[in-house]
């Protein structure tokens, strides 16, 4: 917002309070995330507060050029965001900003009261898609079997369980056909709410028929249907959590963004959480988080994959995936892997949408793309190397 920022000119007008108005606006909006559903609501509140502040300073600032730029900028932004001139405003009073049913505002109030030294809450991302491929809260990427029901998340605020079923006869490949989510009761923000999705049944309501939890006016928890029967979002403002669920083909995908302090709020008995600790080693299809290197005397049997049962060759699968995923990261290789395994082109869309969900929900852009290592140590935030498709085929042969 270059036109709204005071670049030192305010120092020449000590009686003008535009610098304080701008500083407060930046404080109100610095913690907001444009990908979250309540962004416009909070941003409009901040703009109205900014507008009120400039109005109070209109007389003493009338000769200040920065002040007039700010007034024009506020008007433009309010029009762009469809903000009404009348409505609630952000407040510099910590008691007024304290809202137990709005996690971001609640943590901001704690910071102002000196109970926290960190300026922003840290968020984590977890996703599950495809055959199935898991991206943990630690940004580790794994491919697992995990047939049957498994907990992705199980903490004091939220439980997420997925059920995976075989997709190809004679193969250990599985994919998700059922997701159950329990939002646990929290103060006056929401009663316990249960959501359940299954293949060909992706509802836009909780199992009790409601679409929100707690006071309908505050919308501390609610469901948004984006594409009927194909894509829904759940926004739990009271715990700062967003969940995306999609159906692509016959299977479901899930992506979630949650504050780190809540992710780690669980008991010792709740340690089996795939999003937190990854898949058990006995359920892993990949090897220590990376695709295996060829070993001496064990060459890739190219003839075995030249006419695979899936109907895709390495070349056609690579071409198909490259149509949707341009960067050859783990999502690209997962797409190729799934096509060679199942022959189902819907897995291409699943990998592509999983990457889109990362870009929408993951808090750190530099970690959107992760790449398989060329050596041991797993796939994570420090992964730097591409892996050849030949290595992918080797694990595919072992997998089948």
CATH C-level class of the largest domain:
Alpha Beta
Q: What fraction strand?
A: 15-25%
Straight-line N-to-C gap: 54 Å
Tell me the number of structural domains: 2
Structural class label: alpha+beta
Can you name the CATH architecture of the largest domain?
Answer: 3-Layer(aba) Sandwich
Number of strands: 12
Query: Would you tell me which CATH topology of the largest domain applies?
Result: Protein Transport Mog1p, Chain A
| Overall helicity | 25-40%
Shape: elongated
Order of helices and strands: HHHHHEEEEEEEEEEEEHHHHHHH
- How many H/I helices? 12
Side by side, the strands of the main sheet go: 3-2-1-12-11-10-9-8
CATH superfamily of the largest domain: Mog1/PsbP, alpha/beta/alpha sandwich
Mean pLDDT: 79
Biggest sheet layout: 8 strands, antiparallel
Main location: membrane
Organism: Rhabdornis inornatus
Domain Repulsive guidance molecule C-terminal: 123-363
GO biological process, one term: regulation of primary metabolic process
What does this structure look like?
- The chain is an alpha+beta fold.
- The protein has 2 domains: 65 residues; 234 residues, Protein Transport Mog1p, Chain A (3-Layer(aba) Sandwich).
- It has 12 helices and 12 strands.
- The strands form 2 sheets. Strands 3-2-1-12-11-10-9-8 form an 8-stranded antiparallel sheet. It has a 4-stranded antiparallel sheet with strand order 4-5-6-7.
- A hairpin with a 7-residue loop joins strand 8 and strand 9.
- Helix 1 packs antiparallel against helix 2, helix 2 packs antiparallel against helix 3 and helix 10 runs antiparallel to helix 11.
- It is elongated.
- The chain starts with 17 loop residues before the first helix and ends with a helix.
- Belongs to the repulsive guidance molecule (RGM) family.
- InterPro entries: RGM (IPR040287), RGM_C (IPR009496), RGM_N (IPR010536).
- One of its GO terms (biological process) is positive regulation of macromolecule metabolic process.
């Amino acid at each position: 917002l270059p036109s709204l920022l005071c670049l030192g000119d305010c120092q020449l007008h000590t009686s003008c309070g535009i610098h304080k108005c701008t500083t407060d606006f930046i404080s109100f909006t610095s913690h907001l995330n444009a990908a979250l559903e309540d962004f416009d609501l909070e941003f409009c509140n901040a703009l109205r507060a900014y507008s009120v502040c400039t109005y109070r300073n209109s007389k003493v600032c009338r000769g200040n050029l920065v002040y007039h730029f700010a007034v024009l900028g506020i008007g433009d932004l309010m029009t762009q965001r469809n903000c009404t001139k009348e409505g609630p405003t952000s407040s510099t009073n910590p008691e007024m900003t304290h809202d137990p049913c709005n996690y971001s505002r609640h943590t901001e109030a704690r910071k102002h009261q000196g109970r926290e030294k960190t300026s922003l809450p840290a968020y984590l991302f977890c996703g599950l898609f495809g055959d199935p491929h898991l991206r943990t809260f630690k940004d580790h990427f794994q491919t697992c079997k995990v047939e049957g029901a498994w907990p992705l998340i199980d903490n004091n605020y939220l439980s997420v369980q997925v059920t995976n079923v075989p997709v190809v006869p004679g193969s250990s490949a599985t994919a998700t056909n059922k997701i159950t989510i329990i939002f646990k009761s929290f103060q006056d923000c929401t009663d316990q709410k249960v959501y359940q999705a299954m293949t060909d049944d992706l509802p836009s309501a909780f199992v009790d028929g409601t679409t929100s939890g707690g006071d309908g006016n505050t919308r501390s928890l609610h469901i948004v249907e984006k594409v009927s029967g194909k894509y829904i979002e759940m926004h739990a403002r009271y715990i700062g959590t967003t969940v995306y669920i999609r159906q692509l083909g016959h299977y479901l995908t899930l992506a979630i963004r949650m504050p780190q302090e809540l992710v780690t709020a669980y008991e010792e008995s709740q340690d089996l959480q795939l999003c937190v600790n990854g898949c058990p080693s006995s359920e892993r299809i990949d090897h220590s988080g990376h695709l295996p290197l060829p070993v001496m005397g064990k060459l890739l049997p190219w003839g075995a994959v030249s006419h695979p049962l899936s109907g895709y060759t390495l070349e056609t699968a690579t071409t198909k995936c490259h149509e949707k995923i341009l960067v050859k990261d783990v999502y690209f290789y997962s797409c190729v892997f799934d096509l060679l395994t199942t022959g189902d082109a819907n897995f291409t869309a699943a990998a592509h949408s999983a990457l889109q969900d990362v870009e929408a929900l993951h808090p750190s852009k530099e970690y959107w793309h992760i790449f398989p290592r060329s050596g041991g140590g797993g796939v994570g935030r420090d992964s730097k190397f591409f892996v050849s498709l030949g290595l992918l085929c080797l694990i595919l042969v072992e997998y089948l």
